[in-house]
Amino acid sequence: MTPDRGCCALLISVLLFAGCGKPNTPNAPAELRVGQFLFASASARVSLVGEDGDSSVLSLSYAELTDYRAFSPGSYTVDVHAGGQHLLHKTIGLGTGGRYSLLLAGIPQEGQEVNQATFGTRLHRIFEGAAARTDNDFLPTLLLQNDYFVPVPGEGNLRVTQLVPGLIPVDVELDREGDQQASLKGIAYAHTSDRDQFTAGTYAASLHLAGSPQDRLKFQLELDTSTFTNVYILPAAGDSRRLRVVTGRTSQ
Q1: Does domain 25-148 have CATH number 2.60.40.1120?
Q2: Strand boundaries in the chain, DSSP class E
Q3: What's the fold here for domain 149-252?
Q4: Would you list the domain boundaries of the chain?
């Protein structure tokens, strides 16, 4: 074979190999649900506007957690209004094929500024991750959670988020068939436990103030292998001394 023919054969081989790659497909949409957990706010309006023009406006009652909705991947500007006030203006990012929960928490204050933050909170924001999160005097805040999980045979995925302004860290105990199975310790306000896995089944769950044996709340919890269960601890509407749970499930 001459050099010219050899070069042509090599070029054709390269082009054929390249053509065997995965075909171009549209980006898989992201999925997002929203939880309205702003205490003492009977309702809130949440608007999301994407960089590509994709947008949505949601009107939510207190303690309402929406179903997942599809969004184009990318950056979104989020604005939250409640009680006739503009409370929050933030930017979030939604990845291709990802599932997320956007949570509103805290207590709106009359006459507050948009994104109002205390001096201590502004100082903490020089850090990243959990170290940057403060109670911010319980002013309104947004939390964006990634709901990705990996199913494991015989195990259920669980995560607990504590959204009760003013409540000290809490422990959640899980009991199955009368025997204590596991516990999640020291979950502070506006923080979330690790994503943990427990034997699938039905549990009697109890919530305690950290280090205290006294129950503050009891509820039943069902964990299965194909579902990621998220438990959100909230104050009951109109009474911050009473607690309630909202449960969100993410299916495989």
Answers
A1: yes
A2: 30-38, 43-50, 55-61, 64-65, 69-71, 74-82, 85-94, 99-106, 141-146, 155-162, 170-176, 179-187, 191-192, 196-199, 201-209, 215-223, 227-236, 239-251
A3: Immunoglobulin-like (2.60.40)
A4: 25-148, 149-252
Could you read off the pLDDT of 117-145 as tens digits, one per residue? Answer: 865 555 444 444 544 456 788 999 999 99
Could you give the CA distance from residue 132 to residue 128 in angstroms, rounded to a whole number?
5
Residue 136: HSE in the Cβ half-sphere, 13 Å Cα cutoff: 24
How far is Cα 192 from Cα 230, in angstroms, rounded to an integer? 10
Please compute Rg for the chain using Cα positions. 23
Domains 25-148 and 149-252 share a fold: yes
pLDDT exceeds 90 at position 2: no
The reported pLDDT for the residue numbered 214 is 87
In DSSP terms, 208 is beta-bridged to 171, 215
At 136, give phi and psi (nearest 5°): 50, 40
Residue 215 in tokens: 């129950």
